[in-house]
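lol forgot to send this yesterday, sorry. struct tokens for the thing we talked abt
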């Protein structure tokens, strides 16, 4: 089943959209009365006083303001965790996981969140949470928002329809979406089941990385980011609103659908991006450039050039480097690297890193090509080669990434991961 929705385009634009003619006030945000007897509500994802270039906010024109809801009660967090992870010490061990199975029991998006790792502090608005969603049920009569951070969705299997306060957007493997902090949404399955990765960004909202001398075009192009148009429903019933707040889940009753926004304007709306539109720029001479050339989105940390988190992809591309060891180099890094595979094969790991699988190489922990890849790549004929059937990604962060107890002790962990480097031979024979 494929759905075509209408989208607005342009990363970070000041958009406006109305589902009924004249619902959006013109020339002011908060008139005494609004057409169709709507309520105005401001929603801020930066401080009021953030500089203009940084400032993010929407105005919603809705059937009821968000305050019309019940009291919150704590609910079970399931396998959802938040930073700081204190339940187990964080080892420097190189870690790898098989995909998490989609459950047999009916599991919707909220129940199907499994946290693999986190860093920084949800409360302090630094760092990230890294989750997998494994789901086989559409959220019915249930809505969700995350006060702890924006959520970057990286689908690996199954197409999703995200209903949000700003409208609807679909995402499938090969695409991503970002839902800003606090936006209410629900997840509808367009296939029987779905799996994907989520980077919950507690820090500065994602922006597009600079292009430097590359110029005015290339890498991610602003026009390829797609935002929903206003799409409201006027629905009443016994529903539930679930909030992730300060690391825990809470619920409250809500007697109406929160997707009652008839018009909105602003620059803090959900968006999607098709990763195949990424303009890949790489060497046409020699050596393996650093993977920062593949950054799609970055959350700055406040220190120039150092990310709270970078979202990096390893897309299909041509490899033409001459006199070069072409796979990723052997590596130790101050930044911590969490990777996942969406489809195909990753060039550093031809075995064991499978679609839906994940790995973690923390601050200063060594990693790089498995032994077989080294053998092959250091003897390969260096003709131009198309890397097809591959799409991996990395969440790279300045903060040490702490795996959860579930990640360390659960059945998906590959205890023998380090064996992939065991057969690296000594070739040196002295002078
Ligand atoms: O560790 C990894 O596989 C990610 C990575 C890829 C690459 O091409 C260069 C450096 C790097 O850390
Ligand atoms: Fe690396």
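and heres what i got for the seq, position by position
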């Amino acid at each position: 089943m494929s759905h075509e929705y209408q989208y607005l385009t342009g990363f970070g634009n000041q958009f406006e959209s109305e589902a009924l003619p004249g619902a959006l006030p013109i020339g002011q945000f908060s008139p005494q009365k609004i057409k169709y007897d709507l309520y105005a509500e401001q929603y801020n994802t930066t401080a009021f006083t953030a500089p203009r270039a940084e400032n993010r906010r929407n105005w919603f024109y809705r059937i009821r303001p968000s305050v019309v809801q019940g009291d919150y009660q704590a609910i079970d967090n399931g396998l959802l965790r938040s930073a700081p992870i204190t339940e187990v010490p964080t080892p420097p061990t190189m870690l790898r996981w098989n995909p998490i199975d989609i459950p047999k029991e009916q599991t919707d998006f909220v129940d199907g969140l499994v946290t693999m790792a986190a860093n920084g502090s949800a409360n302090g608005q630094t760092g990230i949470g890294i989750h997998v969603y494994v789901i086989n049920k559409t959220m019915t009569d249930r809505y969700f928002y995350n006060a702890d951070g924006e959520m970057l969705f990286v689908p690996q299997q199954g197409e999703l329809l995200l209903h949000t306060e700003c409208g609807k957007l679909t995402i499938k493997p090969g695409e991503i979406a970002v839902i800003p902090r606090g936006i209410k949404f629900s997840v509808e399955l367009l296939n029987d089941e779905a799996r994907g990765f989520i980077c919950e960004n507690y820090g500065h909202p994602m922006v597009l990385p600079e292009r430097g001398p590359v110029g005015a075009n290339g890498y991610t192009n602003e026009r390829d980011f797609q935002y929903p148009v206003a799409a409201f429903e006027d629905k009443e019933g016994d529903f539930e609103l679930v909030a992730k707040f300060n690391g825990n889940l809470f619920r409250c009753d809500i007697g109406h659908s929160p997707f009652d926004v008839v018009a909105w304007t602003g620059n803090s709306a959900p968006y999607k991006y098709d990763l195949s539109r990424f303009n890949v720029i790489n060497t046409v001479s020699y050596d393996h450039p650093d993977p920062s050339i593949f950054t799609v989105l970055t959350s700055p940390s406040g220190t120039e050039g150092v990310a709270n988190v970078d979202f990096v992809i390893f897309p299909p591309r041509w490899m033409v480097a001459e006199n070069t060891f072409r796979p990723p180099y052997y590596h130790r890094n101050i930044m911590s690297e969490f990777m996942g595979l969406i489809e195909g094969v990753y060039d550093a790991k031809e075995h064991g890193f499978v679609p839906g699988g994940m790995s973690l190489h923390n601050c200063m922990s060594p990693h790089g090509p498995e032994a077989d890849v080294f053998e092959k790549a250091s003897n390969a004929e260096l003709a131009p080669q198309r890397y097809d059937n591959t799409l991996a990604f990395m969440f790279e962060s300045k903060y040490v990434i702490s795996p959860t107890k579930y990640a360390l002790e659960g059945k998906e962990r590959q205890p023998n991961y380090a064996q992939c480097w065991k057969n690296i031979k000594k070739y040196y024979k002295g002078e």
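Residues 350 and 373 are 7 Å apart (CA to CA). anyway ping me if u want another try
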